[in-house]
UniProtKB/TrEMBL annotation:
PANTHER family: OS04G0629600 PROTEIN, RNA-DIRECTED DNA POLYMERASE. It comes from the Eukaryota. This is Zinc finger, CCHC-type. It comes from Tanacetum cinerariifolium (Dalmatian daisy). Residues 1-21, 177-212 are annotated as: Disordered. It holds the Pfam family Retrotran_gag_2.
Amino acid sequence: KVIDETYGKKETSGKQETAIDEKAENTTKGIIFQTLPQDMLMQVAQYTTTKEVWNSIKVKHIGADLVQKARLQFLRSESETLKMKPNECANEFAGKLSSIQAKFKSLGGTLNDKVLVRKLLNSVPKNFPPIVASIEQYQEIDTMQFEEVVRRITAFEERLKSQDEPENNYQNKLLLASSNNQGGGRGHGRNFTKNKSSYGKSTSHRSIDKGF
């Protein structure tokens, strides 16, 4: 009888401990589920124990972290290898750099303005050294905002274009004048030949008339 009573107490105690463990397990799972985003919750809801849930979250988090790092590395390589095309204006090239910076931010990374400023100054055409030297000499490159450098480079670019326009117009006028002169010369040559031929015929007729 004593043995039976003792066994009964142990069995009851074991059931109570199991119930407590299950309650704690469910409570912990409930707390975890409340902190998860909806898409992640749907992926781990199938697991019954807290350990299984945590393992699943860990694996998914590590995988997502690796993907994020790979994307950031790709963007960094893209920014380093990006080159300005021959006919590309500074503002267009700066827009590409700003787009890469925005993608960095969306992935939780950071691409400092200092990096973009250096990239832009090293990518401008060969006729831009005056403005590049001015910025590097009189400005703090490491603290300058990227937008400010873009504004200065663009202003210099517009100034170069305005200086090139009169020269281009002058060259076009020279070409047009040369073309007109060549056309006029050819016309006079044809008229001269025609008149010379007519003169020869007229002289021949007069000679014949005198012979008669």
